[in-house]
Fold each of these.
Amino acid sequence: MMKPFATIVLLIVAAHVASVVARAQSGDKSVIDKFIAAQAAREHGEEPDGIRKVVDGDLDHDGVADVAVLYTIEGQNGSNNYIQYLAVFLRKNGNLVYKARVPVGGKNHREIEITSIKDNAMLLNTTAYGPRDPSCCPTIKGKTKFVLVGKKLSERPQK
């Protein structure tokens, strides 16, 4: 008799937890969307669809998962330029709060891909331009990491 009751209770609890997580993720996306849209408007550019990357992990040593976002703003003032940015949102009282951002890549600079957060640092792969690389195609592979230091993101190149 107890098995069906326990199963029903477990299903109800699981559904509630899933609902809470879904609402939190939806709120996180809204905070990030609003932040990037405001920046794109200030730069007279836009964020291209489908290339934003969001990674969760503790960035401020408090044991709570924060969020790092790698995103691109392109077409500033009608140009064919693009800039990649890394932004950090810390989780305070269950909500994301913007903390810092920095340009990390872009046209004729380097391409960046965020891979993870480990030991309070954002780990990224880089592809930089060599002296003979055309503007479309950087070739020099590397790695870097960024850490949150106060209100700023600081780069720590990897060897």
Amino acid sequence: MTPAVSRDAAMVLGLAGTAMPFARTREDEAERWLRVLRLHGDVAGVLQSVGIGESPLQRPHKPVNSPGLARAPRDSDAVEQVTGQAACIATERGAAPVASADVLLAVMQVYGDSFDRVLRSYGTDRNEVLERLDRAPAAPHHD
């Protein structure tokens, strides 16, 4: 049985779904996820506390059309993949609704190294984000 999705997580997933068609690379998709998560849901404060701002401190040096940047799953496929992974994460932790924190963890898993590169461009890394996420007080879930 798939867990319900909180309002915060549903907003993040919906906004990401509208942004994905405009992404040109896997890293571009990862950055779009990060921008949405930084502004919405329970994890917004965590991401802002590690320095995720309006724009990265540095830009990746690879050109947009670089063959080294693999294309991510197309549009809604990326959102569906993250949604499915977030549901698995929520189920594993015994949570009723999928929260935006579950979406963030799912994005980390789905995008892997691409997401790590995006985090580094903002001056942080996966470990710092996970540490702050672990220390963050559990926010009430909105169904």
